[in-house]
Amino acid sequence: MAETAAGASQALDYIKGRIEKARRRFGPPPESVELVAVSKTFPADQVRPFLVAGQLVFGENRVQEAKEKWPGLRAEFPGLSLHLIGPLQTNKVREAVALFDVIETVDRDKLAKALGEEMARTGRRLPCFVQVNIGGEEQKAGIAVSETADFVGRCRSDYGLNVVGLMCIPPDGQPPGPYFAHLVQLARDCAVEKLSMGMSGDFETAIAMGATHVRVGSALFGRRFTPEPA
Ligand SMILES: *Cc1c(COP(=O)(O)O)cnc(C)c1O
């Protein structure tokens, strides 16, 4: 675990090296791959060294945790960008729009409408990703594959959201490649450019398929001991 700036720097260099290698190895390479450092469950003191080491893009999956952790860090590092990568309840939309810079988990009309209204009210028109339930898993968040194109259309025209891309989490225990490839195809159908896919275990595969954003947690910060809420 990287608890010092030097340790964080080393962990970052290692992951960025792997990202860069994957980007060059497979063609046509995405222009650039954004590393979203997933800091959920890690306290501010363990995140700060990564900011000191130059990492400015982070992901959190819970509004409440972000609210406790990030305003202080943001005061120290005004250039940082925070992505919401976990499920969002409609009653937390106001806080989420205030706290985050990118919303990656737009997956239903009620949420999209609430986000659109809050962004219009505050003038914070954040880039959004539509989360797709790429494996068609009953318990998983995300819009159904067959509804994605229509939903992206509604997000844009009815709710005024700035949809920049698609995001997915493939099913556990299966090769992720075909799911990533499917998301790429869907993104083409929806005319969105960005693809948030790939985590610690599979980000190189995701980059090979065309990921523009990879969400890497444990490979950077170490193992998470706190159980994650669903
Ligand atoms: C926790 C989480 C990640 C990071 O997972 P690691 O396997 O630790 O890299 C990425 N995306 C989402 C949506 C997550 O909840």
UniProtKB/TrEMBL annotation:
<dbReference type="InterPro" id="IPR029066">
    <property type="entry name" value="PLP-binding_barrel"/>
</dbReference>
<dbReference type="Pfam" id="PF01168">
    <property type="entry name" value="Ala_racemase_N"/>
</dbReference>
<dbReference type="InterPro" id="IPR001608">
    <property type="entry name" value="Ala_racemase_N"/>
</dbReference>
<feature type="modified residue" description="N6-(pyridoxal phosphate)lysine">
    <location>
        <position position="40"/>
    </location>
</feature>
<comment type="function">
    <text>Pyridoxal 5'-phosphate (PLP)-binding protein, which is involved in PLP homeostasis.</text>
</comment>
<feature type="domain" description="Alanine racemase N-terminal">
    <location>
        <begin position="12"/>
        <end position="222"/>
    </location>
</feature>
<dbReference type="InterPro" id="IPR011078">
    <property type="entry name" value="PyrdxlP_homeostasis"/>
</dbReference>
<comment type="similarity">
    <text>Belongs to the pyridoxal phosphate-binding protein YggS/PROSC family.</text>
</comment>
<protein>
    <recommendedName>
        <fullName>Pyridoxal phosphate homeostasis protein</fullName>
    </recommendedName>
</protein>
<keyword id="KW-0663">Pyridoxal phosphate</keyword>
<dbReference type="GO" id="GO:0030170">
    <property type="term" value="F:pyridoxal phosphate binding"/>
</dbReference>
